[in-house]
Design goal:
CATH topology: Thiol Ester Dehydrase, Chain A
Strand order of the largest sheet: 1-3-4-5-2
CATH architecture: Roll
CATH superfamily: Hotdog Thioesterase
Strand content: 35-45%
Helix content: under 10%
Order of helices and strands: EHEEEE
CATH class: Alpha Beta
Number of strands: 5
Radius of gyration: 16 Å
Number of domains: 1
Structural class: mainly beta
Largest sheet: 5 strands, antiparallel
Length: 117
Amino acid sequence: MSTTPACHALLPVGRLAGRLTPPPNDHLLGLGAVTGVVNVNPNLRQTCHQGDLLRIITRPERRDRSSFALGQRIEKEDGTVAADTVVTLAMIDPTTRRNRLLPQGGGGGSGQGYAPR
Protein backbone atom coordinates (compact mmCIF):
# COMPACT_ATOMS: atom_id res chain seq x y z
CA MET A 1 0.00 0.00 0.00
CA SER A 2 1.27 3.44 -0.88
CA THR A 3 1.67 5.95 1.93
CA THR A 4 1.57 8.91 -0.46
CA PRO A 5 -1.19 11.31 0.62
CA ALA A 6 -4.25 11.06 -1.60
CA CYS A 7 -5.60 14.46 -0.66
CA HIS A 8 -3.82 17.47 0.72
CA ALA A 9 -5.30 20.83 1.79
CA LEU A 10 -4.32 23.84 3.87
CA LEU A 11 -7.43 25.34 5.47
CA PRO A 12 -8.03 28.07 8.04
CA VAL A 13 -9.91 26.92 11.15
CA GLY A 14 -13.41 28.42 11.34
CA ARG A 15 -13.68 29.13 7.63
CA LEU A 16 -14.87 25.73 6.46
CA ALA A 17 -18.15 26.13 4.64
CA GLY A 18 -20.49 23.61 3.08
CA ARG A 19 -21.78 20.20 3.91
CA LEU A 20 -20.17 17.82 6.37
CA THR A 21 -21.58 14.88 4.46
CA PRO A 22 -20.88 14.67 0.74
CA PRO A 23 -23.79 14.45 -1.69
CA PRO A 24 -24.64 10.96 -2.97
CA ASN A 25 -22.21 9.65 -5.56
CA ASP A 26 -24.27 9.06 -8.71
CA HIS A 27 -21.72 6.58 -10.05
CA LEU A 28 -21.95 4.45 -6.89
CA LEU A 29 -25.74 4.71 -6.86
CA GLY A 30 -25.72 3.49 -10.47
CA LEU A 31 -23.85 0.41 -9.26
CA GLY A 32 -26.43 -0.09 -6.50
CA ALA A 33 -24.17 0.99 -3.67
CA VAL A 34 -23.50 3.75 -1.16
CA THR A 35 -20.85 4.10 1.54
CA GLY A 36 -21.45 4.46 5.24
CA VAL A 37 -19.04 5.27 8.07
CA VAL A 38 -18.88 2.29 10.42
CA ASN A 39 -15.96 3.25 12.68
CA VAL A 40 -13.98 6.40 13.57
CA ASN A 41 -11.07 6.45 16.00
CA PRO A 42 -9.95 10.07 16.50
CA ASN A 43 -6.82 11.04 18.42
CA LEU A 44 -6.98 14.71 19.43
CA ARG A 45 -3.40 15.71 20.20
CA GLN A 46 -3.12 19.53 20.12
CA THR A 47 -5.51 22.46 20.49
CA CYS A 48 -6.35 24.41 17.32
CA HIS A 49 -7.60 27.99 17.40
CA GLN A 50 -9.77 30.13 15.13
CA GLY A 51 -7.58 31.44 12.30
CA ASP A 52 -4.91 28.69 12.54
CA LEU A 53 -3.83 27.33 9.17
CA LEU A 54 -4.11 23.55 9.13
CA ARG A 55 -2.95 20.95 6.63
CA ILE A 56 -5.32 17.99 6.22
CA ILE A 57 -3.78 14.86 4.75
CA THR A 58 -5.87 11.86 3.69
CA ARG A 59 -4.39 8.52 2.59
CA PRO A 60 -5.67 5.00 1.99
CA GLU A 61 -5.03 2.62 4.89
CA ARG A 62 -6.59 -0.68 3.82
CA ARG A 63 -9.14 -2.32 1.55
CA ASP A 64 -11.16 -5.41 2.41
CA ARG A 65 -13.96 -7.22 0.56
CA SER A 66 -16.78 -4.87 1.62
CA SER A 67 -15.03 -2.02 3.45
CA PHE A 68 -12.04 0.28 3.27
CA ALA A 69 -10.26 2.62 5.66
CA LEU A 70 -8.87 6.11 5.15
CA GLY A 71 -6.28 7.64 7.45
CA GLN A 72 -6.43 11.37 8.08
CA ARG A 73 -3.97 13.65 9.81
CA ILE A 74 -4.40 17.33 10.68
CA GLU A 75 -1.15 19.25 11.00
CA LYS A 76 -0.52 22.76 12.22
CA GLU A 77 1.46 25.19 10.08
CA ASP A 78 4.72 24.18 11.84
CA GLY A 79 4.08 20.47 11.11
CA THR A 80 2.87 19.55 14.61
CA VAL A 81 0.18 16.87 14.44
CA ALA A 82 -3.02 18.28 15.93
CA ALA A 83 -5.18 15.20 15.31
CA ASP A 84 -5.21 11.92 13.45
CA THR A 85 -7.80 9.27 12.81
CA VAL A 86 -8.68 6.18 10.83
CA VAL A 87 -12.17 6.16 9.31
CA THR A 88 -13.64 2.83 8.17
CA LEU A 89 -16.35 2.93 5.52
CA ALA A 90 -18.48 0.02 4.35
CA MET A 91 -20.10 -0.47 0.96
CA ILE A 92 -23.86 -0.75 1.51
CA ASP A 93 -26.76 -1.68 -0.76
CA PRO A 94 -29.01 1.43 -0.65
CA THR A 95 -32.20 -0.64 -0.79
CA THR A 96 -31.51 -3.41 1.73
CA ARG A 97 -28.95 -1.43 3.84
CA ARG A 98 -26.81 -4.61 3.96
CA ASN A 99 -23.08 -4.80 3.27
CA ARG A 100 -22.06 -5.57 -0.28
CA LEU A 101 -18.74 -6.24 -1.99
CA LEU A 102 -16.65 -3.29 -3.13
CA PRO A 103 -16.96 -2.78 -6.90
CA GLN A 104 -13.87 -3.68 -8.92
CA GLY A 105 -12.30 -1.15 -11.28
CA GLY A 106 -13.63 2.22 -12.32
CA GLY A 107 -12.46 4.27 -9.37
CA GLY A 108 -9.72 5.43 -7.10
CA GLY A 109 -7.28 5.87 -9.97
CA SER A 110 -5.65 2.51 -9.24
CA GLY A 111 -8.04 0.23 -11.11
CA GLN A 112 -8.59 -1.65 -7.86
CA GLY A 113 -11.99 -0.19 -6.91
CA TYR A 114 -12.93 2.84 -4.86
CA ALA A 115 -10.22 2.63 -2.20
CA PRO A 116 -6.68 2.38 -3.57
CA ARG A 117 -4.53 -0.37 -2.07
